[in-house]
Amino acid sequence: MNDVIVVGSGLAALSFIDALDENRTVLLFTKDRVDDHNSRLAQGGVCYSFHEDDHGESHMSDTYEAGSCMGDREIIRKMIEKSHGLIQSYLDDGMIFDRNGQNELAYGLEGAHSIPRILHAGGDRTGEMMTRFFLDRLKNRAVEIHEGHTVIDIMTDGENGAKGVVAMDEYGNARRYPSREVVLATGGYSGLFTPNSGASETMGTGHILALRAGARLRHMEMVQFHPTLLGSRNRTHGLVSEAVRGAGAVIVNDDGERIMDTVHPLKDLAPRDVTSLEVYRQERKGHRCHLDIGRIADFKGRFPGIYETAQRYFPAEMKCAKIPVTTGAHYTMGGVMAGIDGWTGIPGLRVIGEAAGTNFHGANRLASNSLLEALVTGSEAALAVNGTERHIHDDIAPVMPEIPYLDPSLCDAILNEVTETIGFTRSGEELKRMLDKVQALLDQAEPRRTDLGGWERYCKIMTFYSMIHGCLQREETRGCHNRIDFPEKNEELRNQEIQIVMKGEELIAERVENQREAQKLLY
């Protein structure tokens, strides 16, 4: 029996394995290749605030404010404080971040940050370089990797918790894999939207696995849209890092107007929710938006990956120092309710990285806090597992899971409306219409053994359904959640969160009061 099963292969998964005791055996499942994940695409970098005069207090404040004051202040403090020693340990072990002419760490500035605090590697290849760093360290570890495998069920034994998974290979063959611990590091669900900034068209499914195993979801309505995906609404080619605007680029429309000058005091470095919404509004008016990079000296040298991609697809625009951009789904703040060590309340089941809803980000993520969260939750989960020894018996009956079979054509019709229904703006009338439509689809579904296509459809529909519930119940506009029928913040709702739980095959949304703000203040 394996000690730990890890689902996913991004930086959260890799940092978890890296911090795990070497005598622990690990079985890793990933849908694609082990190096094919969204962490690899990270351009901007990772926040590191230990060098600051206040030892990270302003970083905590920026995180809380960017999250529209909905994040958990104590979680914010713990996450950032733990990141300091962790990132320093990676530096000590040879992780190479970019340095300036004085051989000092070079800190970049990005949106909603009060000062430069973002570390980069390879210019705009931070995710790629960090992935390589961890994979090199794991070569001699006892890790068995199963590429091209999709986990479709977490095996549980009542109050005894998780006891392994059921995984299906690319040919549709399913098999049970027992283990003492299951760690989900499957990423978020922004792949549900079109366009999105992800590595593939698939969507992380760990939140649905955990939901079916008895865990709760929170903040499913909170999806961050990145303001500068490279390309147009019809076709995108990755994203253009916020670090480009930190280096001096500005967003202009096709009339040459700087669109952010009158929208927010930070202008082009406003929080992502603000900037994305303005780009969206410009597009609704019929404008195209571009990044004007004319103010950046040696753009090719500072951002080699972005330059190469933009030059390949838009050589004419690049001659004018302009990069066409649009908005697209980028990051999901919602996910499985979990602590910074991945604890879900279910013995043997932890969720880390973007798949986890730790309430670190609140209603909108601060730029470059995602890699920080991946590293900290991965490391903390490993330390927690190192300190426990679960003894389980593999006595679960060999029954393969059944899930509701959903008609493919009806699913496609519904999923084509995702971005319009719960994208940049939401309305109660449209949400209720779509809720009834999805409910009708689920009502006529019959449980049966699934295949890969059926599992993917089910996960997308249930994710959409969970998000509709969250969007409906949050009757305010806050962060990335914009209700056109409730256009203002409602401070009575700031400490409330919409939690999703399953009872049998029924999905239930509950409004829960969070008392965290009565606790110690950060500043």
TrEMBL record:
Q: Which cofactor does it need?
A: FAD
Q: In which pathway does it act?
A: Cofactor biosynthesis; NAD(+) biosynthesis; iminoaspartate from L-aspartate (oxidase route): step 1/1
The domain of life for this entry's organism is Bacteria
Record's keyword terms, sorted: FAD, Flavoprotein, Oxidoreductase, Pyridine nucleotide biosynthesis
Q: What's the protein called, per UniProt? A: L-aspartate oxidase
The record's InterPro entries line, in alphabetical order, gives: FAD-dep_OxRdtase_2_FAD-bd, FAD/NAD-bd_sf, Fum_R/Succ_DH_flav-like_C_sf, Fum_Rdtase/Succ_DH_flav-like_C, NadB, Succ_DH/fumarate_Rdtase_cat_sf
Which class of enzymes does this protein belong to?
oxidoreductase
Q: Name the family.
A: Belongs to the FAD-dependent oxidoreductase 2 family. NadB subfamily.
